[in-house]
Design goal:
The protein is an alpha+beta fold. Helices cover about 30% and strands about 20% of the residues. The chain contains 10 helices and 14 strands.
């Protein structure tokens, strides 16, 4: 494609929103989405239809350090993790047949602990085969440690001053270089509540459920979320467009209003109708991943010509974990 042909494709994709964050990375993203239907018939994960009878439904409890934990609501994608944690299964804790991980954590003599809001400051080698985890005034020693923190969060928020002291005395230089060269995408979402939907059959306003623009809003998506009427993702931005929103970090309400006003002007021009009667601005939320200490970004990618660096991180468990007893998972 020429630059002129590519510009609108970058902005609107093929009707599923902007592909700006991935457009420069790989043609496979386009091929998979268009030819294999990955952007077709999207649905929300609602969670359990009748969660009231599920284990520990909405019942708060205390973790191993007496920190309060909200009970599970079994709503949305989080219901998957809720079921794995709270529902009894023989696969959760091997030594406790038909016991949930929750039961193991909350049983005093089970020797299973969970710390939900205890910040890990650093890791260090303990002897030759164990790993010490320092978390404020809490220090524990483990046989094996799994690290799920994104690499940017590891670099920016861990307070350890030295490299992890492996049996061969240093963190492998190739892995260190790979971690430092990874790129974590910036993304920002601005949500507002909906009083009722505007896209089901019989509605006369003609306001679409999805809008892609070349403004700072980038993408707008509307979802029905039971039991409420729904939610409007009034602005969904990536990379440079997302970083611009950080300038409004101290004015969240003002930025939400600005997004709603801009979307309303676009829809009035396009459809002749206002979206404001459907919006409940008292229900608003913003997510800026680069400002979340446990994330420092949205998702990890590799730039052109750095895929081998990415593989050094992915292959760390196979190459080094038998010596370090440290494992990478999740974004790492």
């Amino acid at each position: 494609m020429t630059s002129e042909e590519a510009a609108p494709f970058y902005t609107i994709g093929v009707g599923d929103g902007s592909w700006g964050a991935f457009f420069a990375l790989s043609s496979l993203w386009v091929i998979r989405t268009v030819l294999f239907g990955y952007a077709t018939d999207h649905k929300l994960v609602y969670g359990l239809e009748n969660p009231t009878g599920a284990p520990e439904y909405m019942r708060s409890w205390k973790d191993s350090r007496n920190q309060a934990v909200a009970g599970p609501a079994y709503i949305g994608i989080e219901s998957v993790a809720n079921c794995l944690f709270y529902k009894p299964t023989t696969s959760c804790v091997a030594e406790h047949d038909n016991t949930s991980l929750f039961q193991a954590v909350t049983t005093k003599d089970s020797n299973v602990e969970l710390f939900t809001r205890t910040t890990v400051d650093g890791l260090s080698k303990h002897g030759s085969n164990q790993v010490q985890v320092d978390a404020g005034d809490l220090t524990n020693v483990y046989d094996h440690v799994i690290v799920t923190a994104p690499t940017w969060a590891m670099q920016l928020d861990q307070k350890a001053t030295g490299e992890f002291d492996f049996p061969f005395k240093e963190f492998p230089i190739a892995v260190r270089r790979a971690i430092k060269s990874t790129h974590t995408i910036a993304s920002c979402k601005v949500f507002v509540g909906l009083k009722h939907d505007f896209w089901t059959k019989g509605k006369a306003d003609g306001i679409p459920q999805l809008v892609a623009t070349d403004t700072y809003l980038q993408g707008m998506y509307a979802y029905r979320v039971p039991p409420d009427a729904g939610v409007l993702l009034v602005s969904y931005t990536w990379e440079d467009d997302a970083l611009k929103t950080i300038s409004f970090a101290d004015e969240p309400e003002a930025f939400t209003k600005q997004c709603v006003d801009r979307l309303d002007a676009i829809l009035k021009q396009a459809t002749g109708n206002s979206i404001k009667p459907y919006i409940d601005e008292t229900k608003a939320a913003k997510v800026r991943w680069v400002m979340v200490p446990t994330n420092r970004g949205c998702s990890k990618i590799y730039r052109a010509h750095t895929e081998l660096e990415n593989m050094r991180i992915v292959a760390y468990n196979q190459n080094y974990s038998n010596l370090s007893h440290l494992y990478f998972a999740g974004e790492s």
